[in-house]
Amino acid sequence: MQLYFSPTSPYARKVRITAQELGLADKIELIGIALTPIKPHDALRASNPLGKIPALVTDDGKALYDSPVICEYLDALAGGHRIFPPVGPARWTALRRQALADGILDSAVSVRYEQTLRPQELRWQEWVEGQWLKVRTALDALEREPPEDVVNIGTISIACALGYLDFRYASDDWRANRPRLTAWAGAIQARPSLQATVPTG
Question: Higher pLDDT residue, 108 or 201?
Fold first, then answer.
């Protein structure tokens, strides 16, 4: 298998952590690429017409995207129900948490593009503030209901979202007034799969 990724992508990190937790990392060839919404990558678009990472090319040549689909494929490849719980309350909680974490990332990545790619005279501060409101509201929800000490698609996704905030927005200190979420993050970030995929660049 081949995985198109960037070491700075939190979505690709989710896939890499999942692969490590499932014992599949050594079966995946990592293809590091650099791209932005205004600088597409032709080889990637040949596999993923959306031109987004991550994209996984399976051993039979099929392309899968995006991170939720790839992670569920890897879970099935490893026997199933290890990262994605079976149907029932635990599954819906894990999927809900994945959606919440991906929402945090969608907003945070959008702000990153707004502040680094859009010409300064065209930047929209009210829109940026609206994205940060989504992030703060989601973090407050996680503080009220911190995840359990389990490893599944929900907790992996949350760990990646918090890791991205640390990476790109360290000065904003998401930990302030969120002691329960802070304690949970410290524990999960010590796992080898997370240590091996800390974003760089």
Answer: 108
